[in-house]
Amino acid sequence: MKKLSLALLAAFAFGRGAVAEDDWFAVNTPNDPNAVVANTSLVEAVAENPMPSACSCNWCEQDTAWFSQFRSDHEFDDFISPVTNPVWFEDPRSLTQLRGVFINQQFPKGSVLGRGDVQVYGMQAWLALSDRLSIVAPKDGYVSLQPEGSPHRDGWADIATGFKYVLVRDPCNQFLLSTGVIYEWTNGSSSVFQGNGNGTWNFFLSTAKGWGNTHFMGTAGWHLPNDGAAESQSVFLSLHLDQKLTDKFYALVEMNGIQYVDNGNALPVNFEGGDIINLGATQVSGNTVVTTAIGGAYKFSESLILSAAWEFPISNREDLLSDRVTTTLTLRY
Fold first, then answer.
1. Cα-only R_g, the chain
2. Distance (Å, rounded) from C-alpha 285 to C-alpha 187?
3. CATH 2.40.160.40 holds for 74-332
4. If we measure between CA atoms, which residue out of 237, 291, 249, 209 comes closest to residue 90?
5. How many CA atoms does the CB half-sphere of 223 hold within 13 Å?
6. Could you tell me the CA-to-CA distances from 160 to 87, 136, 204, 333 in Å, in that order?
7. Rounded to whole angstroms, what are the CA distances from 200 to 178, 254, 331?
8. Which residue from 98, 203, 87 is spatially nearest to 143, judged by alpha carbons?
9. How distant, in Å, are the alpha carbons of 33, 35, 207, 321, 325 from that of 85?
């Protein structure tokens, strides 16, 4: 009997404890004002001392903050990057992105290479260190040269790396002015006219301006080889104009001009290779080639953009460009 009484007493005490715990967490306890006060105090205490998260050292937040410093400048998202002259026509924005490039170029019928063609497969990269300073790597990849009546040649392109700095950044007026320098190394394959000389410097000035749905970009640059005998020297000007037609689709037109200001001393010919190839031709000083292009761009999102343009010469001189199709796919952060 004594054991039964003790068991009933323990059960009663446990039941009172459970009810008290329920009252502690109750939001409204009309018959017990003290429970409401206790509940309010508990909520305040939890707010001041939250439970530790699964990421107790805040690594997730630190990682996000650390990586966000490389985010592209998104104050100019309505602009579309240039498509043609893809190596040297530099977008003035500070961007973090990868861009795949495919070029299919036809040679003029009367060129020394005959009615052949060349394909270039490249992967370009940019890394924004801030909204003003970025590292650029606009040239690399693989070249497939197929001249008419000659053996096909394949090989690696030279790599080019450098930096870009935004001098003027005005989001309110949608205006940018940038400068930078890119160095082209001599790592490429001689079978596709790469790897010659002792490196080339490219000094450039790039700008952009927007007017509503219309956007302009332009780049002027100077190619200065370290070895003037192996490669020719040139200056260039590239212009881009795009029009936003829908939320995702843009139409664009571009123009590129290159003038050779000093001969090389490598090949006794009177033409040059344009933006991808430098032949070091001996008879090109004063020559000018001007091309234009029409195309479009489609934004799957602000992070994924597909662009394409068809380019052809409008000057009397063509050199090695009869026409060219350039396609780019950009993955942007």
1. 32
2. 26
3. yes
4. 237
5. 32
6. 9, 8, 14, 22
7. 20, 25, 28
8. 87
9. 78, 75, 16, 12, 11
Other Cβ atoms less than 10 A from the Cβ of 73: the count is 20
d(CA 300, CA 141): 25
Q: How far is CA 188 from CA 69, 153, 197, 198, in A?
A: 33, 13, 11, 12
Each of the 333 residues of the chain gets a pLDDT tens digit; together they read 444 344 433 443 434 444 444 443 344 444 555 544 444 444 454 445 554 444 444 433 444 567 778 999 999 999 999 999 999 999 999 999 999 999 999 999 877 777 899 999 999 999 999 999 999 999 999 999 998 878 899 999 999 999 999 999 999 999 999 999 999 999 999 999 999 999 999 999 999 999 999 999 999 999 999 999 999 999 999 999 999 999 999 999 999 999 999 999 999 999 999 999 999 999 999 999 999 999 999 999 999 999 999 999 999 999 999 999 999 999 999
Q: Which residues belong to CATH 2.40.160.40 in the chain? A: 74-332
SS3 state of residue 149? coil
Are 120 and 274 contacting, i.e. CB atoms less than 8 angstroms apart? no
CA–CA dist 179, 194 (Å, integer):
26
Structure-token pair, residue 238: 């590239």
